[in-house]
Amino acid sequence: MVVGASAAGLAAAETLRREGYDGTLTLVGDEPHPPYDRPPLSKQILSGEWSTQQLPLRPYTDLDALDLDLRLGAAATGLDVPDRTVRLADGSRMPYDGLILATGVRPRRLPGKGAHVLRTLDDALALRDRLMPGSRLVVVGAGFLGAEAAAVAWKLGCEVTLLEPAPVPLAHAVGTEVGRVLSQAHLDRGVELRCGVTVTEVTEEGARLADGEVVEADEILLAIGSLPNTEWLADSGLAVGDGVVCDQYCEAADGVYAAGDVARWDNPLFGVPMRIEHRTNAAEQGMAAARNLLAAPEARKPFAPVPYFWSDQYNMKIQAYGYLRGHDEVAVVEGDLAERRFVAAYGTGERLTGALSVGMSPKAIRAWRQAIAGGTPWEEAVPAGTPATEAA
Amino acid sequence: MLVELDVPKCVASGQCVMAAPDVFDQREDDGVAILLEEHPGDELLDEVREAVAICPAAAIRLAEQ
Hints:
The complex is a heterodimer.
Chain A: E1 2-3, H1 7-18, E2 26-28, H2 44-47, H3 60-65, E3 69-71, E4 76-80, E5 85-88, E6 93-95, E7 99-101, E8 105-107, H4 121-128, E9 136-140, H5 144-155, E10 159-164, H6 171-174, H7 176-188, E11 192-195, E12 199-202, E13 206-209, E14 214-216, E15 219-222, E16 226-228, E17 244-245, E18 251-253, E19 256-258, E20 263-267, E21 272-274, H8 279-294, E22 308-313, E23 316-322, E24 329-336, E25 341-348, E26 351-358, H9 362-373, H10 378-381, E27 388-389
Parallel strand pairs in A: 1-2, 1-7, 2-3, 7-19, 9-10, 9-15, 10-11, 17-20
Antiparallel strand pairs in A: 4-5, 5-6, 8-16, 12-13, 13-14, 18-19, 20-21, 22-23, 23-26, 24-25, 24-27, 25-26
Chain B: E1 2-5, H1 15-19, E2 24-26, E3 33-35, H2 45-54, E4 60-64
Antiparallel strand pairs in B: 1-4, 2-3
Function (chain B): Ferredoxins are iron-sulfur proteins that transfer electrons in a wide variety of metabolic reactions.
InterPro entries (chain B): 3Fe4S_ferredoxin (IPR001080), Fe-S_cluster_ET (IPR051269)
Cofactor (chain B): [3Fe-4S] cluster
């Protein structure tokens, strides 16, 4: 049984079938839609470039071929690990032999009504319908999601203001200098960016700041991060702490695995527990969890990926490999920061742990993935004399 | 086996090239995937399935096995 019918849950279900599992396979999802892709929500769906017909992760015929007991619009409400049952919102109790948890995350919100969030298809369509030329959009949070939405809204002719609590957007993730360079893309286009401001409340007039000022808006989008959907597991006995806590095999309890945005697991490649909200990780971890669930105990494999993400903002494509958070060092190893065409390398401790590129050939960046996977020492990856830039 | 690549959906992640290097490549400039072999041999079936599963844009489809 797989709980969660988005990228991770679908990847798990497909992998279970590919690996030869031919028993009953139940896929439970709380949204009414068949599995669909989320990255385009803040890009092609929000801009209107794509219709919703382009969003399903698989055509119906491919879903049918999986021979699923597909339960959409059915939220899971409880898990009994010793009894091996999952409770659904309609009161039914579903027995399982093996279970994969892929319930994802939901957006953080602020007090007050009327603000948009951007996580589901319905969220994206609701916001899209409100973005008219000249309308004033305030985006709270200038992280990757907020920046992508701001870029789309600017292109649609909206007056966009980004409100960011940190002094430099994304600095904790990509470093201060790189964060500053990326955020310059907003300023170049006349998108207003106010940093160091905390929004406390959504009001009818706009976004209220900690000092009482109200930033007026027609629409407000909250892009201030996510919370893992684990409340339904509160009585399950599973360890939950910013995600479902798993070992390096993605196992949370005997016969229970977790994958995707909701899973916090020990990544042996970096030696730290991590929870990754990236689209590629959802698929990779869903596949890994499914394989480990089916495998004999001694045949299981640790899940040790090099995380990867991309972001499209204005005409910039940002790509990153590795684990950038908590980095100690950043160095520009190719290109030029000011031109927004560069590769930056990230080091933690003595080793290379990440690389981020903007405006460079995506093909060229893959070499950095190998170097990160190989645990290349920082001194070797970054030639002596390469100027360091300001880290987080 | 028949492989389909939905080029407009591709996000240039290169995941398919890592999964099935004999079937996919990437354009030099923008990294968009190139389908090298529309009808790969059956010995590449597992690699192609891996590429289908791992593509973060759901842009690859195994139309026939």
